[in-house]
Amino acid sequence: MEKDLIQKRREFRTFKDFDYYDQSSKNSYNLMPFNFFRLNEKREVLINEIGDFILAPAGSFEKIVSKKLSKENDAELYADLISNFFISEEIYSPNIDIIANRYRTKKMFLESFTGLHIFVISLRCEHTCSYCQVSRVTQNKDKFDMNISHIDKGIDLMMKSPNPNLTMEFQGGEALLAIDNIKYAIAKTKELAPVYGKNINYVICTNLALIDEDILQYCKENSILISASLDGPKSVHDKNRNKPHASSYDLAVKGIKLSREIIGKENVSALMTTTSHSLKYPIEIVDEYFNLDFNGIFLRNISPYGFALRTQKNKYETKEFLSFYKKALNRIIQLNKEGHHFTEDFSRILLTKMLTPFNVGFVDMQSPAGLINGVIVFNYDGAVYATDESRMLAEEKDFSFKLGHLDENSYNDIFYGTKSQKISQIWANETLAGCSDCAFQQYCGADPVHNWATQGDIYGYRPTSSFCEKNMEIIRYLFELMDSDKEVKRIFENWIN
Amino acid sequence: MVLRTKGKPHNLHEFAVLKATRFKHKADNENYCLLVDDLKDIDFSKFDNELFIVTTSPLDETSFGGKSLHTIKSLSHISEDDILYIGTDGNLRTIYRKSSYQNYLLLTERCNSNCLMCSQPPKDKDDIQHLHDIHLKLIPLIPKDCFEIGLTGGEPTALGDKFFELLTLITKELPNTEVHILTNGRSFSINALAEKLGEINNPRLMLGIPLYSDFYQIHDYVVQAKDAYYQTLMGIQNLKRYNIRVEIRVVLHKITIPRLERLAEFIYRNMPFVDHVAFMGLEIMGYTKANLHDLWIDPVDYMEELEKSVSFLARRKIHTSIYNTPLCLLPQDIWGFNRKSISDWKNVYFEECNKCVLKDECGGLFASAEK
Question: Which of A196, A283, B91, B222 is the most buried if burial means most Cβ atoms within 10 Å?
Fold first, then answer.
């Protein structure tokens, strides 16, 4: 007995060496699904199906897929590839359940269906911006304001959404021209929310020209967020956003300050649109946001279709925007290197997808697409559209993405009708030629509206798509920046939360 | 610190688990034994035969009809209300110290892993039933306001059904006590076992599970068990499926350091739901001494890797700690993650440390590291 114990203890204490735990057979491995992209002449990025990436020297992909990688000589890369699910020594990775869990997490935004409900509360506006699809200077409330009956029906549909967390966003025209209707709508949803078990966030999109203390007190009492328009410094903003007989910029800045005072800084955001005029002022635009004490800026290109481009002067090439974007982004990185926390929010969304196991519910960049799944638009006239851009197409008499009308159609007609079904066949980039094998698939999204508006076909043609051109180059650039400058990587990590 | 001693048993036919007291009126309770430091001038006939007397003095066995452990070298290490194990062979072990925050129950010395740096090397002997019987008696005696108890081994899940029986008892007897279980988590790769643990429904459970690398072969080599890596990962996933809290424990040594940052990233990407990650300095105990050549790296030489890993996880909002490391070794920006983690009975400081203003906040060293 005692002898056995000593014998066993001896066995315990004879330790096996590292090689004993090698599970590979004949130094061979199997490929798991992954793609690659050449960042530049020297480097490439390998990306797997759940968005994990490995930055590696050019040629690594070829070496891996031609099974020339050696466990012994390329030990570090080999281990990276095994532990990050790019290759496996078994037929499939014993970690397959973890991968499945990771994949579910990446698609979690689908779990609760439509959250964002846009109410185009009025089409009227007192601005006449050069790029605006919808501006109407008119006193005709009956024709261009959403009527009470449509507000009621829109709210009824919103309450039918399976999503317990809803966002009700009031857009225009200038939403504040119909503040009484907004108040009516919010009061009504506050009554209904507990009945349907909904938690509702409210957002008013406004140019701030009409904001005053009374409205802001009302916003404060009802926890309403303000989303303002600000295109940059005065010279840029006022040129883009024309207000007859006044400076739109002065009103916006004054409105931002007043709003922050009353409803709190964290409840006031601003959004910019890049016009062809803006392209010349990337640094000035960033600095304007920085100096106004915003935490970041969303560098947003103009919708490359519809009313915005009815005059040629607003049109610009994607590569011009990309050059603008990079200059602005580098200015932002410089600010961060100087010790400030200031983000670029389009990058921040992409970086969240790249650097975290989570996803972002950002309707412009998700697959399946954000339209219907994430957002629905109730237009001022009662028509229901798949996205904000869809209703702008309608202003050009293109009703392709009109899903129905509040007076005529039920929830099922709108969300599960033939038009939604048709769109749903081409809304996942996993199934689209040119997207299904794209390395950046997990970070990007599908945008049938963009395809239709720019290429005349909802399926879209990736090689000439401006959507691809912009997103792919920005994603590539973000990888290149992180790969070449550790400090930038650290800054980017601090942007995501 | 003395935790075990020996005496001569009297009228002891089975082991006893009793609370210690030096007050006669408390000793009337059947859960207590009376500690008597000097019996010389005491008349034994006056003692109630129901009493259990624990004493340093030699006892005249003919004069006392009760149970006793006597002729013990010293009782000075035993405090009021400590809980003692008294064996029929005369062993006297302090198994619960009232004044300590670090009371651990050793459930078994058996283990299905055999880690290169195990501080308490496994033994293949059938100790489960005996230790289990002790713990079943001990748990009801533990004060209800006990802040935390630990369960350790060997591998606690080697107890099988007894493991769940014990946890059910703890949950019933000590509903306000944090329960920290040191396990390699491999058993929970069987989903039904994780589910069963979930059914105990004790929100104060925390399972401390070691993960030594993101690469299977390194982890398996460190724990000296094939497939351990995959089992542990699956185990963690299953435990979190049932909302059981999990702490990942990473021991810092020459084999784990080279991929430490990758491990931190791996934990974040694949297990962002873990409740705590602890990076732990190496304790020069048990197997570590035998494998020191393969394991030893001067902590000064891994501070960069540690700093990067800790600050990465902290940026990603994962609760992170550093154990077993003196502050003076750590870069200042990660001081905030350092915890005083070494069990009081094996924690020491150098003479030099007395001059340091931060000694009170410092993790100090393992007594074993002095050698």
Answer: B222
Question: What's the CA gap between B101 and A340, in Å, rounded?
Answer: 43
Chain B environment of A84 (Cβ under 8 Å)? 214, 266
Interface test with B, best of A11, A15, A492, A493 (most B CBs within 10 A): A15
Same domain, B29 and B144: no
Cβ contact B123–A15 (<8 Å): no
The verdict on A314 and A376 lying in the same domain is: yes
Tally of domains within chain A: 2
Rounded to the nearest 5°, which phi and psi values hold at B143? -55, 140
Closest by Cβ to B217, choosing from A9, A22, A494: A22
Residue B353 pLDDT greater than 90, yes or no: no
Residue A443 belongs to some domain of the structure: no
Residues A76, A211, single domain; the answer is no
Q: Which helix (H) or strand (E) holds A234?
A: helix A234-240
Instruction: Determine what percent of chain B is predicted with pLDDT higher than 70.
Output: 97
Say if residue A82 is in the same domain as residue A127: no
Q: Measuring CA to CA, how many Å separate A396 from each of A126, A309, A402, B200, B311?
A: 21, 11, 13, 63, 53
The more confident residue out of B353 and A478 is A478
- What CA–CA distance (Å, rounded) separates A218 from A72? 68
B290/A13 CB distance under 8 A: yes
Domain end point (choices A85, A106, A127): A106
Size of interface A-B (CB pairs under 8 A): 77
For B214-264, the pLDDT digits (tens) are 999 999 999 999 999 999 999 999 999 999 999 999 999 999 999 999 999
- Domain residue limits at B197: 103-370
DSSP assignment, residue B186? G
Instruction: List, for residues A434-450, the tens digit of each pLDDT value.
Output: 999 999 999 999 999 99
CATH of the domain at B139: 3.20.20.70
B144 lies in the same domain as B260: yes
A135 pLDDT more than 90? no
Q: Contact, B114 vs B228, CB < 8 A?
A: no
Is A347 within a domain?
A: no
Interface predicted TM-score of the whole assembly (ipTM), two decimals: 0.93
- Between CA A317 and CA A119 the distance in angstroms is 32
Rounded to whole angstroms, how far apart are CA atoms B36 and B58?
11
Which residues of chain A make contact with B213, given a CB cutoff of 8 A? 83
In angstroms, the Cα distances linking A321 to A127, A305, A306, A313, B196 are 25, 15, 18, 14, 57
Among B96, B116, B147, which residue terminates a domain? B96
Based on the structure, what is the number of domains in chain B?
Answer: 2
- Nearest CB neighbour to B291, from listed A15, A83, A497: A15
Distance from CA of B354 to the nearest CA of A (A): 38
Question: Mind telling me how many Å the CA of A102 is from chain B's nearest CA?
Answer: 7
A59 in contact with B, Cβ within 8 Å: no
DSSP structure string for B289-309: HHTHHHH---GGGGHHHHHHH
- A106, A130, A155 - which closes a domain: A106
Task: Tell me which of A146-155, B32-41, B123-132, B234-243 is least confident.
Answer: B32-41
A323 Cβ under 8 Å from any chain B Cβ: no
Query: Which CATH number do you get for residue B49?
Result: 3.50.30.10
CA A160 to chain centre: 25
Q: Residue A71 falls within a domain, yes or no?
A: yes
How deeply is A128 buried, as exposed, middle or buried, from its count of CB atoms within 10 A (0-12, 13-18, 19+)? Answer: middle
Q: Is residue A495, in this structure, part of any structural domain at all?
A: no
Residues A128 and A218 in one domain: yes
Going by C-alpha positions, the residue among B5, B1, B8 that lies closest to residue B57 is B8
Q: What is the mean pLDDT of chain B?
A: 93
The closest alpha carbon to B246, from B185, B200, B186, belongs to B185
Q: What is the pLDDT of residue A265?
A: 97
Residue A71 lies in domain: 22-106
